[in-house]
Design a protein that fits this description.
The chain is mainly β and 284 residues long. It has three helices and 14 strands.
Length: 284
């Protein structure tokens, strides 16, 4: 059985002298601040709450961040962790960063859980948001009981799913060996890990050993009606080693953040390119 070590309960030994590297995180447990940061066009948010395990004296589990463009994939947003925001900044030089906020599982077998919840309505009858899941559980604990996950419950239904019916966003379902198109490895392949460690490291300036690509969740709702959202990140199996979800600023929106160009726009673009090519040929 592998030893699951946690780097410094207070997390300061994890961050040490490199707190300025990678994403810059500002700790916050203010639910209104967190909800308003991700709120976008066509969405009205109300009644936000943030719940998390452990004493109020522990390091904060959530906050806002900047400077995530080359690591997370988008520059700004919020981060929710099942441990501490101290395990976010890079480089990836801790042997296992995490904060055990609680040592007792709840009735569903989940240990540390952080949840941002709120009511919302959509002017368009649609809702979208963009997110990235990352974890210290990679890659050693793939296909084990330590299967940390992120869920987005829209009126009780988890819409944080991989495209094409690929299943939930979790350690066991997104990794080097499963749904690898949505996985980014951030740990050396020669470090002795045995499980699913068959893809090269990207050397990202962030502490987590693996992250997903940017994923987009979407759903249809009744325009103007009240709905309930719950963003939840949690430990499964035990409370050691951290995982996190990053949600892009302003992307919780009634409009698609990745719209496809209209067919007419594509045609105009093709005509413009063809014209430019003709001009270049004439000038030579």
């Amino acid at each position: 059985m592998k030893l699951r070590t946690v780097c410094a309960a207070a997390a300061f030994a994890c961050v040490g002298g490199w707190v300025q590297a990678g994403p810059v995180v500002t700790g916050s447990v203010d639910a209104l601040t967190l909800a308003n940061t991700i709120g976008g066009v066509g969405i009205t948010i109300s009644n936000p709450t943030l719940t998390y395990a452990g004493a109020a004296t522990l390091p904060l589990p959530s906050g806002t961040f900047t400077g995530g463009g080359t690591t997370v994939g988008f520059s700004e947003g919020i981060v929710l962790t099942n441990g501490t925001i101290g395990c976010v900044p890079g480089p990836n030089n801790a042997s296992g960063c995490g904060l055990e906020r609680s040592f007792v599982a709840d009735n569903s077998g989940v240990f540390d859980r952080t949840t941002l919840a709120f009511d919302f309505s959509s002017d368009t009858g649609k809702v979208f948001f963009r997110y990235v899941f990352g974890s210290e559980e990679y890659t050693q604990f793939v296909d084990s009981e330590f299967n940390d996950a992120f869920q987005l419950l829209l009126n009780g239904v988890n819409i944080a799913q991989l495209p094409g019916g690929g299943g939930e966003v979790s350690i066991n379902n997104v990794n080097c060996g499963s749904n690898s198109a949505y996985y980014r490895n951030n740990v050396d392949t020669d470090n002795g890990d045995e499980d699913n460690n068959n893809c090269a490291t990207l050397g990202l300036d962030i502490q987590y050993d693996g992250l997903t690509t940017i994923l987009t969740a979407s759903a249809d709702v009744i325009a103007g009606a009240s709905n309930r959202f719950e963003f939840t990140i949690f430990d499964r199996g035990d409370s050691a080693l951290d995982s996190a979800v990053f949600i892009e600023k302003g992307s919780f929106s009634g409009e698609d953040p990745n719209p496809m160009p209209e067919p007419g726009s594509l045609l105009l673009a093709a005509v413009a390119l063809a014209g430019a090519g003709a001009l270049r040929r004439r000038s030579t």
